[in-house]
Design brief:
Length: about 190
């Protein structure tokens, strides 16, 4: 019933809001229906995020500017308007204490590698979505620790002999790596 109410509310808001504003309203409204325990571990092996939300229309041009996404669009002779939404799985997460969602976007389909995929993290701003992190890895973990108001993030990948972990902290504009650890696979 909450989902039906959410859809009706969004449809009612549609004519009076711009696409960006409507999407932000959707994300804010959706935050009240999300379970208390949100997804904090994202894996390249998953078929998508646990509780996906739609790819915001105002995020498509931002993703289309990504070098790899742009090369795939060119290869497949597609425009930004025809950007396949099934290339991405999107989760709304709270990286800080605000009510609006931040987004973890997970590359799917042709954006996925053999044992890794690309993860993007976006934060809402008054001017649209700001890319805070892009990393190609096997696993992305949202940590409990916070730096400058946002959660720390860890990226994990492996080779045949080692596990690699890169830790990221928010610097006020984007995430920067601050520690890299590698250890033998046991």
């Amino acid at each position: 019933m909450k989902s039906l109410h959410l859809v009706l509310t969004i449809l009612a808001l549609g004519p009076i809001c711009s696409v960006g504003t409507a999407q932000k309203k959707l994300l804010h409204l959706h935050s009240h229906t999300q379970p208390a325990k949100e997804q904090v571990v994202f894996s390249a092996e998953d078929q998508g995020v646990q509780e996906p939300i739609g790819l915001p229309e105002d995020l498509k041009p931002v993703l289309a500017k990504d070098e790899y996404v742009q090369s795939l669009l060119d290869e497949k002779k597609l425009t930004v308007q025809k950007l396949p939404v099934n290339w991405f799985s999107v989760a709304g997460v709270h990286l800080g204490g605000h009510k609006d969602y931040d987004l973890v976007v997970v590359g799917q389909g042709p954006l996925r590698g053999a044992n890794a995929t690309t993860f993007w993290v976006f934060c809402p701003t008054t001017g649209g979505w700001q890319q805070a992190l892009k990393v190609s890895t096997h696993t992305l973990l949202l940590k409990d620790a916070h730096t400058r108001g946002l959660r720390e993030i860890e990226a994990e990948s492996a080779s045949a002999a080692e596990v690699f972990r890169v830790m990221f902290r928010y610097d006020g504009l984007q995430y920067k790596s601050y520690k890299t650890v590698s250890e033998p696979i046991k």
